[in-house]
Amino acid sequence: MKSLIEALPDVVKQGRREVEQILARAQSDNKMMLQTNEYVLPARDESGLFRGTIRACCPPDNTSAEYCETDGWFNRLINGDNLFAMQALLTGDPATGLPSMRGKIDLIYIDPPFDSKADYRTKIKLPNGDIEQKPTVLEQFAYSDTWSDGTISYLKMLYPRLALMKELLSDQGSIYVHCDWHAGHYLKVIMDDIFGKNNFQNEIVWGYKSPAVGTDHYKRKHDILLFYSKANKHIFNPQGTPLAKSTLDVWGRHFDDNGVITYGYMKENCPGAYKRLAMRGNASDDTIFLDVFNGSPCDDWWCDIPFLNKGKERVDYATQKPEALLERIIKASSNENSIVADFFGGSGTTAAVAEKLGRRWITSDLGKPSCMIMRKRLIDIPDCKPFLYHSIGDYSREAFLSDKQFRRVSDLARVVMGLYGALPFDVADAPSNLGHIRNSSTLVYVDSPNKVTNANTVKRALELRESYMGGWNKVVVLGWNFAFDIGATIQGLNKSECEVLVIPPDLLDMLRKKGYADLVNSGKITFSSLQYLTIKRPLVVPANEDGKVKITVELDNYVLLSPDSLPLDDKAKAKVQQVMAERPLDLIEYWSIDPGYDGQTFRSVWQDYRENTANDGDAVRVVHNAEIITPAHPGKRKICVKAVDVFGFESMVVEEV
After folding, report:
1. Whether residue 395 has pLDDT greater than 60
2. What are phi and psi of 40, to 5 degrees?
3. Rounded distance, CA 220 to CA 215, Å?
4. Which of 21, 464, 593, 624 is the most exposed place for a label (fewest CB within 10 A)?
């Protein structure tokens, strides 16, 4: 194997080629798109009743003046591979008011994973005890790709991503990359190549006090922030560090609360050492100011921001960084209304601080647990502005298009069929996506990764069950992507006649790494049933307010997919099965309501989530009822309810009243 130094030219060559292909695709008809999962109006439930006007904007496809903001900008939380997310941002999406973000972002901060042995398990609290969820198989494959050849793979992963970030940065923009001793020095060489050595501004040392061991080396007590600008002129607002208590004790008593000298010293009479350290002169007069608010000018050695320990800020995320760290970076390298981005969103510190400081923001993460944490954290911010929650549109389709194993959908369909244990039909003109189980009367229908499995798909499969080659007792539909309302379709099925199952989303990765034969022999490919939510019939009655109605929504049941398909150990699976049997609604992480669903964009005007104790004091359960006061309108109304369970699986149900 090549050494790191020998491998660097290959890393650069491969990365540049990948970026060229991505940028070419952004100009083609085969563009990457974002799918809008939700338009989040931060209004958490505190009493079981939501009333009043929704103080928010809405996506541009809604013309109601009640919802509109002034400039049409929407902050965005994106779930998915950041390589795909950045491609979509470069392309833009007029449907959600997203222009091309090329050259529009003033600040990017990223904190990519830099430990190949890190354990990113997620702790999940259940009423019958805590369990640990391993990363999803999709995340495991992505992470193992990152470290398959150690630091070389890590640099290969980061090169095209950093190059796309440069494309997204404005001419006054900057990027901060958070790293440590694992790969920091090699990463600087890569960033010199992408951003230019002349645009390197600082190597910032963040020193902290935290538990650390060093049996055969000195304790490692600092991280590194590599700070680059896009061009010569970049936003930079000097920041300060607090003055030493001894300095304030000696000199502070001579200054008032505004930092103005109180006893008549002129500039020339003020001690020089103090003037250099703690004062700034005013060019118009001889008044001396003590900068008690910003302190002494900040250098590149940050030891005044402590490592994040337990406290209100903690959200139980392994790599969470303190808000004070991001506050300094965002204040220094962006202005109010600047767009700030973080493409390894993690616990959401960047987005949360940007929101509090009046910046616009975009954040993304591959992990659904991370996105759920970020969503809750943002909702908890007082007066948080509405934001869009996206996923990568047709993720399986994107994976298929970027995969070189299969040139045709029909080839992939036959592979899926074989992994399920079905055989293709050995007759002329047989559909390539149809097969059957040997020695049984079961038909197997494999949908395309380019399509969304919906009610029409199921209807077509049932027609084939009745008519194809004389008819079959049962048809099994295997799908990649599913319509939001597929749950209602599944509930109406006779399982002895039709069953709908999920093709593993990481299947293409597994085929690429292990091969078809190994997967067949392993017997570990699981085609899961879909999860779904049911609600009781909503009630709509006149409210005690003119022109308004009260809508009551109550959860009924939640059906989770098989625990065998979840990344859990046997003990954790048993706990989940117990909750499924006794109190299935306790598996819901959060649920939200759109009382006037337009059939396209879900607008969550009410929401409750675990750990929201403002309503019932229970941190491991959501409330099951909601009442919403909203303007009446003639005719029928669609009420849409969305739920996300503790594992990140989404369900939606629509009732027309």
Report:
1. no
2. -90, 115
3. 11
4. 21
